[in-house]
């Protein structure tokens, strides 16, 4: 892409292909960067082992900002549904799958949820709401450090979870809708 008024022209097709092949890395706060989050989701779904098949997350998926931005998830193998593999997204790319040892009884279908229920880019809304509320209550930390989407196996309920927002005098709890919009913000 070129900026308005740029006379350098557009890149040659080969340059454009090379540009598209590069991993996308956030230019700032990863959890507030909807484009970088969307690129991470797209890259996950494009991994050859999924081959266009639905991606199912085992119990929860974690997103970290700060100095070491990354995503950590355990994902059901679509070709062997009783198998779960560990994946990490860091430095703009997904790791190779690592086998996870699963213990306990129950049905696998009760322990997974479709990735399509959430959008990684919606985390930017959570980060924005977190930052706004942090400023409102004069918290020292205004950047969202960690958020995860979790399935409560006993109840079947799923939700976004952040840590408590802490000030010198109080702690506050957030509740978010699936689309990342703020549902409630309460003093504990």
Q: Any chance you could write out the topology, listing elements then pairs?
A:
Layout: H1 13-21, H2 34-45, E1 56-64, E2 70-76, E3 84-90, E4 93-94, E5 98-100, E6 112-114, H3 123-136, E7 146-151, E8 158-162, E9 165-166, E10 171-176, E11 182-187
Antiparallel strand pairs: 1-2, 1-6, 1-7, 2-3, 3-4, 3-5, 7-8, 9-10, 10-11
Describe it.
The protein is of the alpha+beta class and about 190 residues long. The protein is about 20% helix and about 30% strand. The protein is built from three helices and eleven strands, in the order H-H-E-E-E-E-E-E-H-E-E-E-E-E. The chain has helices spanning about 15-20, 35-45, 125-135; strands at about 55-65, 70-75, 85-90, 95, 100, 110-115, 145-150, 160, 165, 170-175, 180-185. Strand 9 (about 165) and strand 10 form a beta hairpin. The longest helix has 14 residues, at about 125-135.
